[in-house]
Amino acid sequence: MVKGSFNVNSTSVAAWRAVLSGARDSAIYQSGEAAESPLTAGNTPFSRFTQPVAGESTGSSGSANDEWAGFRSLSDSEIESLATEIVAEIRRRLSSTSPNRPYLSLSDFVNRELTKSDFGRTGVIQAAIDRAGLNQGISTSNSAILESSLDGTFGNGEFPEPENILLADGSEGSASMSAPTYLMQADVLQAIGSFISVRSDTFRIRSYGQSLDPISGQVVAKAWYEAIVQRFPEPVNPSSDSPENPDYWTALDSSGDPQPFGRRFKVLSIRQLSEDDV
Q1: How do 144-145 and 173-174 pair as beta strands?
Q2: For a tag site, which of 8, 30, 143, 277 has the least CB within 10 Å?
Q3: DSSP secondary structure string, 66-121?
Q4: Beta pairing class for 202-212 and 219-235
Q5: Are the C-beta atoms of 230 and 201 separated by less than 8 Å?
Q6: Edge-to-edge order in the sheet of strand 263-273
Q7: How far apart are CA 121 and CA 39, in angstroms?
Q8: What torsion, rounded to 10 degrees, do the Cα atoms 145, 147, 150, 152 define?
Q9: What is the Rg, in whole angstroms, of the alpha carbon atoms belonging to the chain?
Q10: How far are the Cα atoms of 190, 199, 248 from residue 196, in angstroms, in the given order?
């Protein structure tokens, strides 16, 4: 079990907001400097480099030097927008699968889909960044990459699929893309990648039961229960007595046959719910 891992299948804006702002007000040191680089109070830095050579850029402020050599930071409102768009993008993509399913691996979550739809342009987080407009302050009209500049109109050679240069929201790309302060999916993953997962070990299980009148068939009683259940590494039927023995963790019984049960589950809590709680 990994303490504190975060399931990227979460559709809670509050949970994503908490994860994305985990480095809020964290210190960033510029290369060769002993003092912290000034950071807007309450902002969350996303530095592409361990020690950037310039200062903070908020996307709408900062010098040209900061834009191309510094680091990006997001305000609380921008974090909120990004979290909201990530949840919306997860719902949008997973609802398009048939049958609907969660992400089964991190590569499934991170990479773009192999399709010609909008999902084939970028991964979930990059699409959310684009839709939240977090790079609009850096992408000026002078830096826009126009489709007309890629289709051979200006004698620059023809780009086979010029529409692929568009952002997830369908807007034009920018020549500033990949600048250190142009926020990209990789910058976010660099900050949260060490503790994200596509699965959980703790589950909330709810059940419902009712009693019917044997004559009229009407419902005479209802009950709702909720249990918090956690999956532990220990197998239900260990193959040896000591966890120090590698055989303890195998999924075979003493005769070499597969065990009928896998890992152990423990009920951490259980409570009765009212109809209003459901």
Answers
A1: antiparallel
A2: 277
A3: HHHHSEEEE-HHHHHHHHHHHHHHHHHHHTTSSS-----SHHHHHSPPSSSSGGGT
A4: antiparallel
A5: yes
A6: 202-212, 219-235, 263-273
A7: 33
A8: -140
A9: 25
A10: 11, 9, 28
185: three-class secondary structure by DSSP: helix
Output DSSP code: residue 57.
E
Strand partners, 74: 44
CB 156 within 8 A of CB 130: no
- Of the candidates 210, 227, 229, the one whose C-alpha atom is nearest the C-alpha of residue 272 is 227
User: Could you tell me the sign of the dihedral formed by the alpha carbons of 137, 138, 143, 147, in that order?
Assistant: negative
Task: Enumerate the domain spans of the chain.
Answer: 6-197, 202-273
pLDDT at 137: 77
> Looking at residue 130, what DSSP letter applies?
H
CA dihedral 72, 74, 75, 77 (to 10 degrees): 150
* Three-state secondary-structure class, residue 246: helix
Phi (first) and psi of residue 173, to 5 degrees: -75, 180
Question: Tens of pLDDT along 45-97?
Answer: 999 988 888 888 887 655 666 778 889 999 999 999 999 999 999 999 988 87
Say which residue the tokens 């209003």 belong to: 276
Classified as helix, coil or strand, 168 is coil
**What is the tens place of the pLDDT at every residue in 109-141?**
999 888 777 787 889 999 999 999 998 877 554
Tens digits of residue pLDDT in 164-213: 666 666 666 677 778 888 999 999 999 999 999 998 888 889 999 999 99
